[in-house]
Predict the structure of Sodium:proton antiporter NhaD.
Amino acid sequence: MTTRSAGRFLILLLFVPFLSVASTHSSAAFAIDMTDSWAGYACVILFVLAYITVTFEETIKLKKSKPVLLAAGIIWAIIGFSYQQIDQIEVAKAAFEKNLQEYAELLLFLLVAMTYINAMEERRLFDTLRSWMVSKGFSYAALFWLTGLLAFFISPVADNLTTALLMCAVVMKVSENNPSFVNLCCINIVIAANAGGAFSPFGDITTLMVWQAGMAGFLQFFDLFVPSVVNYMVPALVMSCFLPKGCPDLVQEHIAPKRGAKRIVALFLLTIVTAVSFHALFEFPPVVGMMMGLAYLQFFGYYLQKSLPRFLAQQKALAQANHDETTLKRLGSIVPFDVFKRISHAEWDTLLFFYGIVMSVGGLSLLGYLSLISGTIYPHWGAQWANIFMGALSAIIDNIPIMYAVLTMDPVMSTGNWLLITLTAGVGGSMLSIGSAAGVALMGASHGQYTFLSHLRWTPVIVLGYAASIATHLWLNHAQF
């Protein structure tokens, strides 16, 4: 390797996690190596600058989707110009369309999932759970374990961001005047939410990508359940030794779920079954079943709207008969359920950020950067150490491009190793507060009681859990390697 090539390789090694899944599959046989051209260097610099801007989102108050959307557009403009000069524009066009198709499938899948979560939130299901917890008078230790365990078991269905914010709201409600307890609980919640999402195809975007790529079957993800439990329990047990004694002041709060809340949960579970069935029976993308599940919610929303006048009349008559002024006042504030309003409340900044990442790194892959390094990391380091390294990087860099990098490299790996990268990319972000959306969100929601430095003090213990979960997976699932 020449000095120039070696320098270029070292630079690219820093950017391994950003390289994408789609374009290599679509045009690997026709892509032209532009890694040593002005176009290649310009695109890498653009993307790195955009990603650096993303990392300062909280400081400069700029939505993370904006810089990557701009970078994606400029990168593909440079690619279009470069490929046009060599009369290969059709290759670039095919690569772009393939990237767009991959993104569209994931976008629609996530949009349906987010719509259901927002519908449950609008029906006050999460508020009801929170009010039950804060009014029970749990001790500090009980709250620590309850919020952690609920975060672990809710995040495989709901996203880890929503789960973490819900549990943080409980902690802040009952013990806002105890910063040390809030800090320990927030760290515990972040670890639990990330670990819980690692063993479910629906728990995280990265697990969803691995499932849709066909690298592991739906039920095979649950082989990661015990390693995920270990990843959560090791640091949780250590932190529990430093909890304050006694109980926080009792907070009386009662919130009832709105009409249809439980049925929406049932419809969401039916939607998951439908998505899995389409994939298992017909080998269709799971998004087909998810979009069908959106129809379930739309029809149920239609029923709620049409039956609302009759429901209100019955409840009003009952409240008047019982002289229940509180119920009468509440009935006057009920508004019809609107599915499309729930869709509008989806995390559009996250979805657009995802587009910018996919299209930007897809462009970098087409330019040839992935082929420059794909034959080095996995063959020389071995699949297990490479997967462990990639997972550790997710503490600094978003795990979505990391998983895209691995899927794009498409190394020859056993099912056990594909599950290993799923585990490490899912839980590696817990090592730093900035390593996951849950950690970043809780730094804001805790009003300064949970910070980057306070999380960093517990990083050695979290790393111990990371190592223990990997060892558990290698031991329990050794037959899959």
